[in-house]
Amino acid sequence: MAENIESHLVEKRVFKPAKGFVKGARVKSLEQYRRMYRESITRPDKFWAREAGELVWERRWKSVLKWKVPFAQWFAGGKLNVSVNCLDRHLGGPTRNKAAILWEGEPGDKRALTFQQLHRDVCRFANVLKRNKIRKGDRVIIYLPTIPEAAIAMLACTRIGAVHSVVFGGFSADSIRDRIADCGAVAVITADGGYRRGAIVPLKKNVDDALHGGTSIKRVIVFRRAGNDIHIEEGRDVWWHRELEYVDAHCPAVAVDSEHPLYILYTSGSTGKPKGILHTTGGYLVGIYSTMKYVFDLRDEDVYWCTADIGWVTGHSYVVYGPLANGTTTLMYEGAPNWPEPDRFWRIIEEYGVNILYTAPTAIRAFIRWGDQWLKKHDLSSLRLLGSVGEPINPEAWMWYRDKVGGGRCPIVDTWWQTETGAIMITPLPGAIPTKPGSATLPFFGVDAAVVDEKGNEVSANVGGRLIIRQPWPSMLRSIYGDKERYKKQYWSEFKGRYLTGDGARRDKDGYFWIVGRIDDVLNVAGHRLGTSEIESALVSHPSVAEAAVVGRPDELKGQSVVAFVTVKGSVTVSTSLKTELREHVGIHIGAIAKPDEIRFAEALPKTRSGKIMRRLLKEVASGKTVTGDTTTLEDLSVLAKLSAEE
Ligand code: WT7
Question: Which residue among 15, 77, 133, 379 has its CA within the 20 to 30 Å range from the CA of 396?
Fold first, then answer.
């Protein structure tokens, strides 16, 4: 195991927070960070009660944490409403007239919504939900582009205590259908279409296909975005703008229990079926409120831009809820970074005077490839702080980000976390923690992270191992929706009572964490999480396929690319057109992001005598390496020779 999660980086550069930055920072020194961290670990009740006390509660909690491994209750006995904390709470002072959302569509259309306007829109749409018989606790699928209505729909659900499940606009009809079935959703909120690289993504059509043949969905609310022709199913589908004609802007918020479900977000795991990660209300809100405030070192006047799509957890925690809970202006952009030209991001930063940019390493590597000339055309001097998320950032990309985007003056916060953790877990605090290119540095307050060996013992400095979390934290997932057993088994059983992240890591002599990436059967392709077995089940559902094994291959741009080894059924002849067909097939089953970059037909797959596919070997074959290490358990050695010769 250890050799698989060894990280071979030897990175010596250290960047101390600049004096000018430290002066205005919330946490100003390593000593102050350590003091606060120590309190957060030894007296979590005290620490989190103070953070929670900055939010609005309809009824105060009775206990900060009740922990019965592995089930946590945070702020039990408390009652609150998320939309009140993101909106109403800012209406009493000058924040009322500040931009809550600055939005730009891919075609170049623009909108700005103040906190007051957003509040009004959320109240009206919450009344639309009620009018359409959506009640507290009901599950609602949101399948929208990154437009203000996505935030409005999410917040409107929270206002009435409905539970949203946002499905990324790049996912296919089959994926929508699976998610509806898993959570028993009663309504879908979608748009006619969305823009992507100048083309229109037929969102409503995908929803129609998903609902074909009947599901639990009773209502579809359609926002007019792209103006493309769509089918309206009488009695089921209604237009968003029509519905607004029937409602007013008065909608009292429903205060819910702290542990009331807030949302379900599906993510890939090590089986063929995506997991519905369940987040609840009080702890999640406290977690994202607090991380947002400290990690991005927020100031009242900030324009903050997180480039994530609303369909990922980053879009939930750090496009919508985190910024709004803090009264921060959040910028949303609908489209691709290279549309119409590769300077779209830099253009936006200049035009809106963006102060904080939070993006993904895969985007940074693409910018490097497109060339510095695109940045040079724009004034990026408004930037104060840069963030990275989604995958390990290589030191070269880190340095480029710092020098070229940040002009050498902006700290970089490389933030490690997961859909399951809800909020940032390992990260620099920009005024306090010196950074090293490629390291997520130290744990956030209340996060008891460690690197352990197979037996669960902490390893010594610079030895690779598994990354685990030893104490519950407020924004942690509460379960996998509808499957407590899987939740227990997946996250808490390998090391009893400890949360298994699925990532490999090492700590250096300063205690800094260096995340190596997934060590389970999960791939990270361009910052998107994909389960190998999910893609495998899509492939074997094709009539020509007998067996499939999917592995990741290191990719300069995307971090990892998807390589599929496929054996076909006896009568089938392999061809290039079959490859194309299989890629399309995966696109239909999951979505375009999961299409294999390469498909290799094989006569057989390398297996152990007990029938387990030897992925390690396939990984080596996929990356063009000669196969090394132990092959003694391989059942048929000739398989390996044939695979390598396939090229
Ligand atoms: C996986 C979680 C967190 C929101 C976006 C992804 C990888 C994430 C980092 C980072 C190294 C990272 C991990 C993790 N990851 N951030 N800063 N450094 N790796 O959420 O889809 O749940 O994926 O992304 O492998 O387990 P997700």
Answer: 379
Name the residue among 375, 372, 392, 371 with its Cα closest to residue 383.
Answer: 375
Ligand 1 geometric centre to CA of 476 (Å): 15
Cite the residue boundaries of each domain of the chain with CATH code 3.30.300.30. Answer: 522-645
The superfamily (CATH) of domain 522-645 is ANL, C-terminal domain (3.30.300.30)
Residue 612 reports pLDDT greater than 80: no
Q: 639 CB contacts (<8 Å, ≥6 apart)? A: 602, 603, 604, 605, 606, 607
Pick from 18, 2, 10: nearest CA to 408: 18
| Alpha carbons 624 and 632: distance in angstroms, whole number | 21
Give the Cα separation of 634 and 647 in Å (integer).
Answer: 21
CA of 224 to the centre of ligand 1 (A): 33
- The residue ranges of DSSP E strands in 217-260, in sequence order, are 219-223, 237-239, 256-257
Beta bridge partners of 239: 222
Degrees (nearest 5) of the Cα angle 91, 83, 248?
Answer: 75
Q: Say if CB 365 and CB 557 are below 8 A apart.
A: yes
Residue written as tokens 């070192």?
297
Among 309, 310, 467, 524, which is best to mutate for testing ligand 1, by the most ligand atoms less than 8 A from CB?
524
522 alpha carbon – ligand 1 mean position (Å): 11
The ligand 1 atom nearest the CA atom of 527: 6
Q: Measured in angstroms, how far is the CA atom of residue 416 from the centroid of ligand 1?
A: 6
The reported pTM is: 0.91
Angle at 516 between CA 322 and CA 440, to 5 degrees: 40
User: Of the CATH numbers 3.40.50.12780, 3.80.10.10, 3.30.565.10, 3.30.70.980, which one belongs to the domain with range 19-386+395-505?
Assistant: 3.40.50.12780
Residue 313 near residue 265, CB atoms below 8 Å: yes
- Nearest alpha-carbon partner for 193 in 219, 164, 229, 166: 229
Strand partners, 331: 102, 305
| Digit-coded pLDDT (tens) for 84-105 | 999 999 999 999 999 999 999 9
Cα 298 to Cα 430: distance, rounded to the nearest angstrom: 11
Distance 417 CA to ligand 1 centre (A): 5
Beta-carbon-side half-sphere exposure of residue 549 (alpha carbons within 13 Å): 23
Q: Which helix (H) or strand (E) holds 380?
A: none
Largest CA distance in the chain: 74
Cross-strand partners of 76: 63
Ligand 1 centre and the CA of 472: distance in Å? Answer: 19
Q: Which atom of ligand 1 is nearest to the CA of 440?
A: 17
Q: Which two tokens stand for residue 442?
A: 């130290």
State the DSSP code for 572: P
What is the whole-number distance in angstroms between the Cα of residue 527 and the centre of ligand 1? 7
Measured from the Cα of 419, ligand 1's closest atom is 22
Q: What is the dihedral of CA 482, 486, 492, 495, to 10 degrees?
A: 170
What atom of ligand 1 comes closest to residue 417's alpha carbon?
A: 3
Condensed to tens digits (0 to 9), the pLDDT of residues 545-573 reads 988 999 999 999 999 999 999 999 888 99
Q: Which residues line ligand 1 (CB under 6 A)?
A: 267, 312-314, 389-392, 414-419, 440, 501-503, 515, 517-518, 524, 529
Chain segment 12-48, per-residue pLDDT in tens: 899 999 999 999 999 999 999 999 999 999 999 999 9
> In which band, very low, low, confident or very high, does the pLDDT at 609 lie, cut at 50, 70 and 90?
low
For the chain, residues classed under CATH 3.40.50.12780 are 19-386+395-505
Q: Are 301 and 326 in contact (CB under 8 A)?
A: no
| Dist. CA 230–CA 321, nearest whole Å | 31
